[in-house]
Specification:
Alpha-Beta Plaits; alpha+beta; four-stranded antiparallel sheet
Length: about 230
């Protein structure tokens, strides 16, 4: 009503409302994704707050507007405002949504150390082996690979793998361990420290989790989302 009467863009109205009411909003966050694990814990928390405030104030922002707001907070926030699967380019602001796959199960491991994203990028810049998927694999091929091929056929890479393996020998052990346990695909997540494996068979994933937990208690099974979670206001 206010936006319509004064012709204030919804995204501006949202900013005004959150600024005026921030002293009356109390946020409690139960962290399950540790900082420095390369799983986007902080960014997903920020995106969740934006979506919750949008629902609370009834501003009805589009996903694009939420992504624009998220971009001001952090590079990975727009992704978590847009959907469960996407191809992301630039600093995180160029997002192409992809139909998510839910036909596999994963295991994530967070080692007993954390990696600073800033330091990881410094190591990458200093490395002579700096490689990016943008130059290695065309965008269309990336999407087709994800959507059409079996995980065992994926050739996705993480540019941080080589530099992190040099500093943290545990990653070489994890690659071998997950291969021995039957993972169809495995990789370091983001800039570390977490590591994950993909299994087409859920039972195989559950059996593997029990084995991985013997050396890495943080190991946990996860399933991909088919849609972004709904915000519930009570």
């Amino acid at each position: 009503m206010i936006s319509s009467l004064f012709r204030i863009p919804l995204i501006s109205l949202f900013s005004i409302a959150t600024t005026l009411l921030m002293w009356w909003v109390c946020i409690t966050c139960t962290k399950r994704i540790p900082e420095g694990s390369g799983l986007g814990g902080g960014s997903s928390n920020a995106a969740s707050v934006l979506r919750a405030l949008d629902a609370l104030f009834g501003t009805g922002l589009t996903a694009q507007s939420l992504c624009s707001l998220g971009e001001r907070i952090g590079s990975d926030v727009p992704f978590f405002c847009s959907g469960p699967a996407a191809l992301v380019k630039g600093r995180g602001e160029r997002i192409r949504r992809i139909k998510p796959r839910t036909d596999f199960t994963g295991i994530a491991v967070v080692p007993d150390f954390r990696i600073s994203t800033k330091e990881a990028y410094q190591w990458l810049d200093e490395s002579a082996r700096h490689t990016t998927t943008d130059t290695a694999v065309p965008e269309r091929q990336l999407v087709s690979m994800y959507r059409c091929l079996e995980p065992a056929e994926w050739i996705f890479i993480n540019s941080f793998t080589w530099v992190l393996e040099q500093r943290f020998p545990v990653y070489k052990k994890l690659f071998i361990l997950f291969k021995d346990l039957g993972a169809d695909f495995s990789l370091i997540s983001g800039s570390g420290s977490s590591f994950y494996g993909i299994f087409r068979d859920r039972k195989a994933a559950l059996d593997a989790e029990r084995n991985v937990k013997k050396d890495y208690p943080s190991a946990a099974v996860f399933a991909p989302l088919d849609k972004i979670p709904t915000v519930i206001v009570q």
